[in-house]
Specification:
By secondary structure, this protein is mostly beta strands. The chain has five helices and twelve strands. Strands 1-2-3-4-5-6-7-8-9-10-11-12 form a twelve-stranded antiparallel β-barrel.
Amino acid sequence: MYRFASTHSLAMGLLFYCSPLISQAQKQQSPHFHNSSSPGLAILDRSIAAINAPYSSSGINFNHTGTMFQAASLSVNPYLLKGSKSAKKSQSNNSWQGLDKANYSISSLSTKSGNYLNFGFQHNLYQYYSPKTLKSSTPQKPALANFAVELGAAYASRNRSGEFRDLNTSRWGTWLGLHYRPSTENPGFALSAIVRYIRNEQFEDYSSTYDFFDTGLRVNYDFTHWSLGIEHLQRIDQALSESKEFRTNLVAQVQINPYLNVHGSFGHNYSSRNSLLAQLGLSVHFSRMD
């Protein structure tokens, strides 16, 4: 019972289920780009970017990624759906932030080895704004933090039969990220670093159960309507204390309009099998404005 063709179709269904909420959310002009990464897809090594850039969040963000893999994700930030006054308050605090301001997501992935259903969250635990940054921030043009500490976690499950009851743990993980942006104006430079722990249960060519760490850096440069970044991560097998696998990836993003972005990536993706990473995706995002 409860059969489904793929978890990808489930995520698509959730988008239509949430469409009344999207239609109620008034569109807010945003001068910034948005992350295309989903926590669940990131720990499965199937996200366009493995390291987030220090971009602003949105109330609702839907991503679809194709080409080599079929994936979709839907993230919601309830705090930013309250309105621009709430967003402005969030961006004017140089302090630790509560979990009520986190992004929560669900994602799906379809591969030859099975269908994956994933859950996760991302949150800036701490953010700092310089006095100049706060002075230039408005509800219609919210500023980005000059420095932020990000916490993330995700759980990924897999099934081969097409039934929910057959979902089994594939991977789970947690990470800590540091983001630095000297200037919040476009064009602008940004630097991000991450340390991610992943527990592997069963995932394609990673057949054994073991722990590993990913450590990496991302350098990003934003222009007016497009951005370009490069990321490198090294994977360390905790049991063997070896670091043989790595991911080096070019990430590009083009802003079609304030609510639609096109993402793309190309590079090497960890293992020797399916090591070529070449993906193209769309991102649709909305926030509420009082």
